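User: I'm preparing a small set of examples for a lab meeting where we compare how different chains pack in three dimensions. I only have the primary sequence for this one, and I'd like the structure in token form so I can line it up with the others. Please keep the answer compact; I'll paste it straight into my notes.
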Amino acid sequence: MQTRPRIAVLVSIVAAVLLIAGCGSSTKSDGPLPDGASLLKQSEQTTRGEKSVHLELTVTGKINELPIETLSGDLTNTPAVAAQGKASIVAFGQTFKDVDFVVADGNLYGALTPGSFTDFGPAADIYDVSRILSPDVGLANILANFSSPKAEARETINGVNTVRVTGTVTGEAVNGIAPNIGATGNVPATAWVKEDGDHELIQAKLEVTPGNSVQMTMSDWGKNVTVTKPAV
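Assistant: Understood. Below is the structure token output for the 232-residue chain.
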């Protein structure tokens, strides 16, 4: 005779727990967004101290001064500044897909023919991807030079809960991360910052000219990266 009342009580308890859990989740996703400027400042401090990262870079449209379509690589500044990975680059009037590249001792090495590296000289003369980790001219400097930052929405990037912050970045900061671009004024920018924890920078986009942008997606901050200088 007491079985049904007990079941009813149990069902009520379970329903209440689920309701509370659902409300908690909804509150987090629908609650007020954090202040954009404060979030960028926290992310800048974290980014400035980072020693390595995995980068996925994509150019949308065309940026004549940046001869890259896509890039996937690992970057480090410990024990020395270096990078390695694959890139699709524009050179000699054509596009070379999945070219192995290495930045070591300030020079850029590329294998336009698989397995055969060429020393292209100073990376800064073409594109020095290792600058992205520089605390002085890299991503941290981009975050430090945001103007009128506005937190617009929450978005999930590669499984990470982020807040999307928009604004503009000075041309000087843009040229710091990629000097060849030669930006002359403020550039529209978007940063996706991890909402909790150390507020790591997960993604950044710079619209160099209308419809022409470079987007950088970061992961594996702080992982061990070993770069071997190729034989040429």
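A couple of notes for your slides: Helices lie at 3-30, 36-48, 139-144, 171-177. The chain has one domain: 36-219.

User: Perfect, thanks.
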